[in-house]
């Protein structure tokens, strides 16, 4: 069945295509610039811009970064922190969201009120640091994983998703003699893959890009995540030329800083770019169902 668009429909579609093309351009161009710049000599990039000459390209930045043992260790630490944080966040959000979605659950309004209040009022950095210190988690992996593992927004998303699950499924299972635990693990969880993948992606990306908690709670550099290692490398190479008498040495340090900067952005973004396509179908469905119901 063909549908004939009116002139107004075609005009609106044209405007939509133009806006989408502009959005794609705004997103793609910086990504391409960083990717290409990570392989180019900084002087050639500044003087010529993008070049087709192979002599203007180099992998020196990647060699400098990958030859650093702290980089590999930070990469593995970041993977561990992000994966553990995502698993813990999903588990806590699901276990908290499901009871709050059940009608007749005693105290659900009270618990929701308490949770929502914490979205607007928090103790702040110093009280949180003191709590982490009193629990003996300073300079341990738990100081990075546990604080912030429970997000009220994630709990609300999970609760909203569970409210959209047909009640008839649970009622039919109860008629067959299934317990609440059996209903949850055998019926609700298999139907909750979209929202669980969305929560996992949110948590993984947030933890992967985070360095502040590690900077506050960790002293042992062997526990540093990748973002904190990259920050340390960039700061060490960003030396003011006025502090160095030898101008040639200052120029070389500046060149190395530029090489490392772009290469580090690519390396730190690569896992997320590889992971997202596999989560995309769950991401779209989970966000829509978990936010519109």
From TrEMBL:
GO terms for biological process: transmembrane transport. Residues 75-278 form the ABC transmembrane type-1 domain. The chain crosses the membrane at residues 12-36, 78-98, 110-130, 142-162, 183-205, 259-279. Pfam families: BPD_transp_1. Belongs to the binding-protein-dependent transport system permease family. Keywords: Cell membrane, Membrane, Transmembrane, Transmembrane helix, Transport. This is Putative aldouronate transport system permease protein. It is found in: Cell membrane. The keyword Metal-binding does not apply.
């Amino acid at each position: 069945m063909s549908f004939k668009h009116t002139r107004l429909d075609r005009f609106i579609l044209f405007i939509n295509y133009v806006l989408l093309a502009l959005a794609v351009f705004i997103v793609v161009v910086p990504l391409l610039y960083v990717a290409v710049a990570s392989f180019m000599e900084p002087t050639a990039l500044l003087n010529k811009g993008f070049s087709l000459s192979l002599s203007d390209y180099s992998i020196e930045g990647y060699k400098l970064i990958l030859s650093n043992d702290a980089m590999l260790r930070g990469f593995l630490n970041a993977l561990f922190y992000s994966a553990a944080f995502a698993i813990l966040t999903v588990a806590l959000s699901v276990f908290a969201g499901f009871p709050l979605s059940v009608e007749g659950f005693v105290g659900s309004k009270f618990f929701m009120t308490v949770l929502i209040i914490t979205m607007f009022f928090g103790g702040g950095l110093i009280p949180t640091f003191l709590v982490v210190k009193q629990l003996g988690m300073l300079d341990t992996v738990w100081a990075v994983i546990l604080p912030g593992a429970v997000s009220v927004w994630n709990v609300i998303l999970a609760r909203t998703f569970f409210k959209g699950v047909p009640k008839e499924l649970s009622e039919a299972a109860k008629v067959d003699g299934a317990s609440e635990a059996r209903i949850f693990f055998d019926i609700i969880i298999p139907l909750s893959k979209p929202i669980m993948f969305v929560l996992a992606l949110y948590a993984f990306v947030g933890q992967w890009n985070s360095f502040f908690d590690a900077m506050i709670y960790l002293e042992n550099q062997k526990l540093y995540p990748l973002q904190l290692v990259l920050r340390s490398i960039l700061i060490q190479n960003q030396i003011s030329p006025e502090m160095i008498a030898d101008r040639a040495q200052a120029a070389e340090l500046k060149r190395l800083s530029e090489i490392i900067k772009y290469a580090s952005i690519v390396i730190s973004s690569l896992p997320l770019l590889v992971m997202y396509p596999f989560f995309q179908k769950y991401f779209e469905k989970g966000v829509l169902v978990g936010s519109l119901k």
